[in-house]
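Section 3.1: Structural characterization of target chains.
Under the original work plan, the team committed to producing a structural model for every single-chain target entering the pipeline before any wet-lab resources were allocated. The record below documents one such target. The sequence was received from the expression subgroup and is listed exactly as submitted; it comprises 178 residues.
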Amino acid sequence: MILTFTHKKQGPDNIFMDMNYRRLTVEELENLREDFVRFLAAHQISAFDWEKMKTDESEKADAFLDQFSEGVFDNILKKVEYLEFKTPQDIKTFHCLPDKIKLLGLMVEGESEVDFTGDQSAGDMLGILQKSGAGLKMYSAEKAYGGSREQELFRMLEQGCLISKDGEMYKLLNSVSR
């Protein structure tokens, strides 16, 4: 069971806003520096004003960081179509549709040195599987989102799923399962 909490944060205009995601890390903010500068400029905040706000009005600065973070995550998550989660013996691929999510998975059954998280080629994995006598089991499921699509995808990302830009693995498993 996944418990979710919505954090109430005071927004830059003294309005309490719900935090659906989390604040970006320092490293994430550094990677989005130019976008953040444009965000501040859109709110008519100069570099000088921002530095002053961070020291004199830290709560207001935090609220701007939260607002920016929310926008970044929301924009990314709205575009997500495929996710993947890999363990050494299991691959879960997800097709994230507007109203539901579909899962296609592949699991190693039996003892094997196959490692889906490693750099083994498909041919190497097949050879290892054949030598070990282990098999592969495909499985599938689908469900409607338990709330907001974006919040559910965010939770999945925070739990270790990765965004797949092309959905190649999902599409491959889908073509094999037909």
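The longest helix spans residues 58-79.
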